[in-house]
Structure formats: structure tokens, C-alpha cells
Amino acid sequence: MRKFRLSTTALALLCAVSLGALGTADARPGGGSSIGSRGSHTWSAPPRTSITPGWARPMDQSATPRMPPGYGSPGYASPRPMPGFGAPAYRPSYPVRHPFMSGFAGGFLGAGLFGLLSGHGFMGGMTGGTSFFGFLLQVLIIGGLIAFVLRMFGNRGQRSPMGMPSSAGAPPFGNAGGSAPVTLTNDDYMSFQRLLLDIQAAWSAQNMRALASMATPEMTGYFNAQLSDLASRGARNIVSNVQFQRGDLSEAWREGNLTYATVAMRYSMTDVTTDSMGNVIDGSSTEPVTVTELWTFVRADGRGNWILSAIQQAG
Asked: Which of 249, 239, 241 is CA-nearest to residue 297?
């Protein structure tokens, strides 16, 4: 019994040390990092605002590839230019050009190919001598559907975007003062504030379905990885009493049929990390902390709602 008690005590101390390494400051949604994509602006510093007068931390993780310095500029020379051609124009990666479609296509391919490889497929699979021909038939059907969807969205991206209604910004949001090709409405600012609160609530409830409806597939993947890491350590992060204080529009722009908006937001919250028994192992349930971050939202013009596509830490 004495040896068992000593072993239990040692295990408890080991868990406490492991959980203590998590750090409350890095446990909130986004993990205190700069993650996500801002279209072609991903690797450009957002314009400064009154609440973010310093620098913004560059992206730590992003699906958008970083291009070489000066890429696409008149003086840039391609390492291996083809005869008769200059440097190719920058073309964003598929997840950047289609942040909504990347999750659909990925899930469609993942589920479909997994079913085919496991012998079930979309049609329930076939048996006997027709299995091979059934496999080929399903591959052709899947390929045709994906090609149709990609072609449909590609044609939409080439259309001229429709104009946004003109309206002054709604307090407590301000404007960085720079020229913004897109004018946001009061409803847009209210959507940003509501998303801030709803994402924090879904995070604390570990509701991945809700998070997936409010963020791009890329951001949803980051959230899922962070929550899984906490769970593997036997911990849970709970953010509560979130109070929005102030926001400033940094920039808003269009890319094809997508509209982006980067907003600096300052908010306070109660941020605690608990163990599997609900005991607080880090943070304070009585002392709120104040955070300033730059959140980038994206939506398809004329359809859909704003969703989160990036979080950046303010200096």
C-alpha cells in the first residue's frame, strides 16, 4: 500500500508539472500565435491602428506559401527563366483562392477515397468480378464531380465583384485612416464582435461543429489541433466573461469574389486551464486578462456570412 501511494503521488506530481507547462497565456483560441491566411496580404504587415501602434507578429503558421523577396516585381529575375518568358505573376495557392472550397474538397476527397480504398465507396461497393469495374466507375464519377465544382467556382472567381453599400463605421470600431477599397457597414462590425464572443464560447465548450461554422477549414484545423493537444495532456482551457472593449479597422479589400477585413480588437476575459477533475491548474478565475489581437475575416460577396480566417498577435 505504501508503494502504491508513493507511485500515485509521483504520477500526480508528474501530471502537475506537465500541465503547468501549458501556460494560460497560450491556451486561448489561437494559442497566442499568429496563424491563418489573409489572402495575398498574408505575409504583409497589417496597417497600424490606434490600439495596435506597434508591429504585428508575422504568421507562425499559414497555408499560404511565403514568396521570395521581390517576387513578381519588375526587377525580380526568376532563378531559371524559360526562354521568351519573364518572371511568372504570383498566383495564390488553392486554399488562399478558395478558402471555403478547400475544406469541402478535402473532406469530399478524404471521405470518398477512404471509402473506395476500404472497399465500400459511395455506392456501397461491389462484389465478385464486377468489383474492379465498379471501382473505376466510382473514381470517374468522383473525378467528374470535383472537376465540375472546381470549374464552377473558378468561373465565379473571374467575375467582377459587386459593390458594397456605403455606410459609416459603427462605434466602438474606428478606422486606421488608410484607404480601404471596401466600405464596411454597421452590420459588418457587429458581426465581427459577435464572432469574437461566439468563437470563444465554442472553444470553451470544445464544440468543433460550431467552430467549423465560424472559421475557415484552415483555422478549424488549427483549433482542432490545439484542443487535441490540451486533451492529450488531460487539460481543458475555459475562456469566460469575454468583454469586447474596442476595435479598429486595419484594412479591408477584395480578391476575386472574396472580401477580407482585418480588424484590431481589444477584449478582456477570464482565462483558466483546468485538469480533468475541474481543478484550476493555471490562470485565475477572479482576475481577468486583457488581450489585443488582429482578427481577419473573409466572406464571399453576395452570399454567406463572415468567418474567421486568421489571428495575429499585436506587438
From this structure: 249
Q: Which of 161, 179, 163, 150 is nearest to 255 (CA)?
A: 161
Please give the model's pTM, rounded to 2 decimal places.
0.64
Distance CA 99, CA 95 (A): 5
Can you give the pLDDT at residue 138?
Answer: 59
Q: Identify the three-state secondary structure at position 266.
A: strand
Dihedral Cα 70, 72, 75, 79, nearest 10 deg: 80
Long-range contacts of 141-150 (CB under 8 A, 24+ apart): 142/108, 142/109, 142/112, 142/113, 142/116, 145/108, 146/105, 146/108, 146/109, 149/101, 149/104, 149/105, 150/101, 150/105
Which alpha helices (H) appear in the chain, and where do they start and end? 2-20, 94-97, 99-117, 131-157, 186-204, 208-214, 217-232
Write out pLDDT tens, residues 271-311.
Answer: 999 998 989 998 888 999 999 999 999 999 867 799 999 99
Cα separation, 138 vs 146, in Å, equals 12
Q: Are 269 and 285 in contact (CB under 8 A)?
A: no
For every residue of 296-309, DSSP letters joined together read: EEEEETTEEEEEEE
CA distance linking residue 95 with residue 63, whole number of Å: 7
For residue 298, give the nearest of 245, 268, 254 by alpha carbon. 254
Are 180 and 263 within 8 A, CB to CB?
Answer: no
